[in-house]
Amino acid sequence: MMKPITSMEILNAYKVLDGKALSHDEALALIRTEPPYLMDLYSLADKTRLKFSDPHICTCEITNAKSGACSEDCSFCAQSARHRTNASVYPLKSKEELLEAAKLAETHGAGSFCIVISGKGYEKANEEFNSILESIRLIRNETGLEVHCSLGILTGETAKMLRDAGASMINHNLETAPSNFKNICTTHRIEDRMNTVRVAKTVGLKVCCGGIFGLGETVEQRVEFAFALKELDVDSIPVNIHQKIDGTKLAESKITLTEILNAIAVLHLINPTKGIKIAAGRNTILADYQGLVFHAGANGMLIGNYLTISGRDIVKDRQLLDSLK
Ligand code: SF4
């Protein structure tokens, strides 16, 4: 049985505010925080966010530009061709359709627009990849939005082409701790994902890289995941909370609200200068507590719909943002 955290251990963690890093054992003690110290942990994460990260809640919107029929077997994903789900299956949208979606995102107040594609990725340019490049150029010319891309595994060559077309950031999630990855995907390796992050950074793209809590990982693996992102020096960290989708292999997550908030707070304390964006699971699993997450280390959220799950009414999200000012 683990010993409960002490007030001295929480106080010791205030060293993060002085720019000092947490050790693995210190982070592990913090992620196991229980009442009556929960608010002390969240308060420290909030102070750290205000000191080191953008204090404003930033928003971004994604579009599922090509859906389903993916060759990979990620056990949580509705878009794997190996799962029988109700997720839509369609080929890459035209550049005109993507421009229209980007313009709509701009009217919602999004600062960036992310083109998301199902599939393993692009090691070389092909017709589909070239069409994505054209869409990026068009959106950059016709809107004030930053364009981000989530296209799976990239090489130095394809990452450079995205940069040259005007993309400023790629999203490629680790999804989970390196030691848990083989339990959720067998068709590619965590090293392939880590390598994509490295090549994107090498060519000068910013990288948004995070994952999903509730994929059967242990508390230790949540800490391992946070340190893996620190080592990769990613720019922004999206966090999803697993929701079982009918037809996928992975069982319903048993993660509790306290575990989620503790994981987000510790993820932030390990990566204090990086923004944490809350995506899927925000309006369903966090539900009435979603405002609290922005006082526990998070400073951004995905608005609009997620890839295969409907999002929340934009008006309600605007009200939430106003109430957090
Ligand atoms: S997470 Fe990406 S790579 Fe994995 S099955 Fe889904 S679309 Fe394919």
**What gyration radius follows from the Cα positions, in whole Å?**
19 Å
Cα distance, first to last residue? Answer: 41 Å
Major pleated sheet: 9 strands, parallel
CATH class of the largest domain: Alpha Beta
Taken from the alpha-carbon principal axes, the silhouette is globular
Notable characteristics:
325 residues, two-stranded parallel ribbon, alpha/beta, globular, 2 domains, 12 helices, 41% helix, binds iron/sulfur cluster, TIM Barrel, nine-stranded parallel sheet
Question: What would you note in describing this structure?
Answer:
It is a single chain. With 325 residues, the chain is of the alpha/beta class. It folds into two domains: 1-39, no CATH class; 57-323, TIM Barrel (Alpha-Beta Barrel). The chain has helices at residues 7-13, 24-31, 38-52, 95-107, 127-142, 156-165, 178-184, 190-202, 219-232, 257-270, 282-286, 314-323; strands at residues 58-66, 112-117, 121-122, 146-150, 153-154, 167-171, 206-208, 211-213, 236-241, 275-278, 300-303. The protein has a nine-stranded parallel beta sheet with strand order 7-6-4-2-1-11-10-9-8. α11 (282-286) links the parallel β10 (275-278) and β11. It starts with 6 loop residues before the first helix and ends with a helix.
SSE diagram, text form:
Layout: H1 7-13, H2 24-31, H3 38-52, E1 58-66, H4 95-107, E2 112-117, E3 121-122, H5 127-142, E4 146-150, E5 153-154, H6 156-165, E6 167-171, H7 178-184, H8 190-202, E7 206-208, E8 211-213, H9 219-232, E9 236-241, H10 257-270, E10 275-278, H11 282-286, E11 300-303, H12 314-323
Parallel strand pairs: 1-2, 1-11, 2-4, 3-5, 4-6, 6-7, 8-9, 9-10, 10-11
